Amino acid sequence: MAQPGGHLQLRALRNDVGRIQAGRFFVVIVPGSGTGELAGITGTGGIAIDPDGTHRIWFDYDLDQ
Question: Model-level pTM?
């Protein structure tokens, strides 16, 4: 039995001076990469690692369905 869902591709972003910031990582969903139930998805996200080692993850997305 097929599982519902889909796939998408993420791409790392650099900050505006061309370097990835220490302790921060940014991603964007590659346009048109969503399949199945994720077709039409757009968005961004990232991870920040605080000095105490706490990891904060966020993901903002929109499903245009």
Answer: 0.61
